Design the sequence.
């Protein structure tokens, strides 16, 4: 049973007891407090994949061997993804790319290249729209299945892992993931590379890094020069600190 299901059940029980045992202003205030508390927990569950409120999610890999994983969202991008692949090839590092289905359809050769060079392809929904998290079960299944089909067609591999747009989840995700045969993957180091300066992103990653960390970066729509500078600096500094790099699936299994 998910934390969402448990929380909902307990909320209903407590609210029912309050409605029976209390009266007047005390009942109204108590029920209002219960409703506000439930809404707060629900909101945290939507916005924090690490809370694992609606369904389980892998947000950090195994520790003990000083290994971390690089992951990239929103590609494949004809400029940034190519630059990242060249950097990773030079550094002999395998990463994970959570791809948007429509981008895969637009660039099947680049998607195939990601897999051919030893990297992991993941599902990042088909459209990655702002309203994706408002979709119900049927809409989410369609988003995931279309992306699975696009990646299989382009690269001949079936993704095992899914990352939702912006890390947002809702009560439908658990059932949809089981139906789609996908495992949910989050992160424990969010780089904020789409909003912070290059220097701030590098500092943020290095400050939050620990053994087993999953690092979230973006290749979709990114500046090739900027993302290469960020990733190159992080690789160099982490290796100097004794860290190694492992492909996501090997880090978490």
Sequence:
């Amino acid at each position: 049973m998910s934390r969402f299901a448990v929380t909902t059940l307990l909320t209903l029980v407590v609210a029912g007891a309050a409605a029976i045992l209390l009266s007047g202003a005390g009942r109204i205030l108590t029920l209002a407090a219960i409703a506000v508390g439930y809404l707060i927990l629900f909101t945290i569950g939507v916005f924090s994949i690490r809370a694992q409120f609606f369904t389980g999610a892998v947000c950090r890999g195994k520790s003990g061997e000083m290994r971390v994983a690089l992951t990239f969202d929103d590609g494949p991008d004809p400029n940034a993804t190519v630059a990242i692949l060249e950097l990773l090839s030079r550094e002999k590092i395998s990463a994970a790319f959570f791809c948007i289905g429509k981008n895969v359809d637009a660039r099947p050769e680049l998607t195939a290249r990601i897999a051919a060079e030893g990297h992991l392809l993941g599902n990042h929904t088909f459209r990655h729209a702002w309203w994706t998290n408002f979709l119900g079960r049927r809409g989410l299944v369609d988003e995931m299945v279309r992306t699975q089909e696009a990646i299989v067609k382009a690269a001949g591999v079936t993704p095992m892992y899914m990352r939702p747009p912006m890390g947002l989840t809702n009560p439908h995700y658990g059932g949809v993931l089981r139906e789609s045969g996908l495992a949910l993957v989050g992160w424990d180091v969010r780089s904020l590379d789409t909003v912070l300066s290059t220097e701030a992103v590098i500092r943020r990653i290095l400050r939050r890094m620990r053994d087993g960390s999953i690092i979230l970066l973006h290749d979709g729509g990114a500046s090739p020069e900027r993302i290469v500078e960020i990733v190159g600096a992080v690789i160099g500094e982490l290796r100097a600190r004794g860290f190694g790099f492992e492909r996501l699936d090997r880090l978490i299994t």
